Amino acid sequence: MRTFVSVTGLRKSYGAHRVLDAIDLTIPQGTIFSLLGPNGAGKTTTVQILSTLIKADAGEIWVAGHDLAKEPDEVRAAIGVTGQFSAVDSFLTGEENLRLMADLLHLGRTKGRRRVRELLERFDLTDAARKPAVTYSGGMRRRLDLAMTMVGTPRLIFLDEPTTGLDPRSRRTMWQIVRDLVQQDGVTIFLTTQYLEEADELADRIALLSQGRLVAEGTPRELKRMVPGGHIVVRFADADGYRRAVGHVGATSSNDAALTVQIPDSGGVRTLRKLLEWLDTHAIDVAELSVHTPDLDDVFLTLTQEPSAKEPSR
């Protein structure tokens, strides 16, 4: 898979305060990459550098085949940014907001109007196209904001807290829109979010930033396997099966009243396979079996030593 963003040795300081310390990132084209970290970890600074808003102190950055330090205009032409705070003009209609963006990008009247119609339909805004954006719901405003970013057909989109303040239904609608951008358009997404469920749901790969350093990177599944706490819970169908199994399945805890045992599990299939084979061999009936793995909240807490934010704040 072709690399779309490559970052090597990225550093940034403000006075004596080092914000980013030797950051290395590789983002394949047509994937969703999420950067996580507590407030002040350096997420916003990273996005500002990659989107050409500020300069790095050191490091090599390539975006869409262009050296960011030498070809910033070419990088800007390949990217779009949808910030945490909507760029929508509340006093313009949805259609007028999109037309304004098309004019700013010098698309020309015919091409611009065609692009506006396409985006209104794609983002389910056609019925509200001629209504002032101030009347839009939060979900509609976020869709319009992202549609405005798409006017210029960017190949890389920086999404900063894209679902902040949205209700669950609107949040899932945005998730599907983001997936479609990747699957249908081949867009690469750089996602920053404090909703860890969102990163788990969307991201192909996640990097965890803490105090200006990358402390972990991998798929959501790989990150969850970095921390302890996974286990299997078995509830037996009868007391006889429970008594026969409790001393033989490697349980770390048991509950005589509930007929349950808890067995440590590293996240692979080996422990589960051995357990099922043992139960089958000894003809022990199970009423319920569940596998519990650490979630990204556990990863966040363990690797950054800070609790994750349930509601974003910056």
TrEMBL record:
Molecular function GO terms recorded: ATP binding; ATP hydrolysis activity
Alphabetized UniProt keyword annotations: Antibiotic resistance, ATP-binding, Cell membrane, Membrane, Nucleotide-binding, Translocase, Transport
Positions in coiled-coil regions: none
Main location: membrane
Membrane topology: Peripheral membrane protein
UniProt subcellular location: Cell membrane
A Gene Ontology term for the protein's cellular component: plasma membrane
Superkingdom classification of source: Bacteria
Biological processes annotated in GO: daunorubicin transport; doxorubicin transport; response to antibiotic
Boundaries of every ABC transporter domain copy: 5-236
Alphabetical list of Pfam families matching this protein: ABC_tran (PF00005)
Family: Belongs to the ABC transporter superfamily. Drug exporter-1 (DrugE1) (TC 3.A.1.105) family.
NCBIfam families for this protein: drrA
Protein name: ABC transporter
Organism: Streptosporangium minutum
Native organism taxonomy: Bacteria, Bacillati, Actinomycetota, Actinomycetes, Streptosporangiales
